[in-house]
Amino acid sequence: MRLERRELSLVARTPAKLNLVLDVLGRRADGYHEIETVMVSIGLYDTLRFEPESSGRLELSLTGTPARLGIDPSLFPLDHSNLILQAAQLLQTTTGCPQGVRISLEKRIPLQAGLGGGSSDAAATLVALNQLWNLGLTPAELHPLAAQLGSDVNFFLDSVPMAVCRGRGEVIEPHPLSAPLHFVVVKPLGGLSTRDVFQHLDRSVPPRGCEPLLSGLRAGCPRMIGGGLHNALEAPAVSLSSEVAGTLANLRLIPAWGSLMTGSGSSCFSVLAHPVQAARAARRLRAMSDSQVFVVSSAT
Ligand code: C5P
Hints:
It is a single chain. The chain is α+β, with helices and mostly antiparallel strands. The chain folds into 2 domains: 2-173, Ribosomal Protein S5, domain 2, CATH 3.30.230.10; 182-297, GHMP kinase, C-terminal domain (Alpha-Beta Plaits). The protein contains 10 helices and 12 strands. The strands form 2 sheets. Strands 1, 2, 3, 4, 5, 6, 7 and 9 form an 8-stranded mixed sheet that branches. It has a 4-stranded antiparallel sheet with strand order 10-11-8-12. A hairpin with a 4-residue loop joins β6 and β7. Cytidine-5'-monophosphate binds next to β3 and α5.
């Protein structure tokens, strides 16, 4: 994320992510699944503005034009079930800080999309309020708070371009990305619930591991990168959503290094050699359906 001070406020640009590999290794006693995943940060952003509020109250509002972006406000609660306010409250209760904040959010990352928008916003809230409220927490102190909020929040905390994430997703091993990757991302109208997708998982499918993809990235080899892409949650998501199946079928009509669903869906993407090819693919995909289509590159 990028954090900027504007007078008394802080403004954060919070990126989305794509999962290039996602293996499910088993079910844990706490009901979560042990996973191994490769995540990359991409250039699709929400914007959050944090203004000090001396009363101690925590307030969240939406700005911008969510309807145009297909963001259904009923799927986006502004109360304490929202991860942004949960992050702020967790910081207040952990540190005893009496200060409050007014947060306005311009949402561009689609919801229930497997793009990590809510987690990225929560991570930015921890980092920004640590600064705004002068709490002085170290990254090592922020990480356990991030893990309490959700499985993907830790990835966004340190703003690394790529990481292998393990545990339930909260154990982060950063990996350098030597060259940017270029994507076209398609978000069908419907979303998917992470919980539902995990519940429909076929546990007999063996994990394929991250190494084929990571070797492909190190070698800069499109064939190895394409061959290394895989997501154990794709098959259950396809069985739950004909839109995901249709989106993947459309993506596979266009030549690319490879195509995949991200996270627990419902967005899917193709990796392409160049942003110009991604833009050309986006034009074809927009003509095929009503889905939202984004042309993005990874951070390096
Ligand atoms: O961590 P988060 O709240 O985003 O996860 C939502 C739901 O997805 C969990 O309640 C759980 O049912 C499922 N999940 C899982 N294993 C993971 C991550 C999520 O079973 N590693």
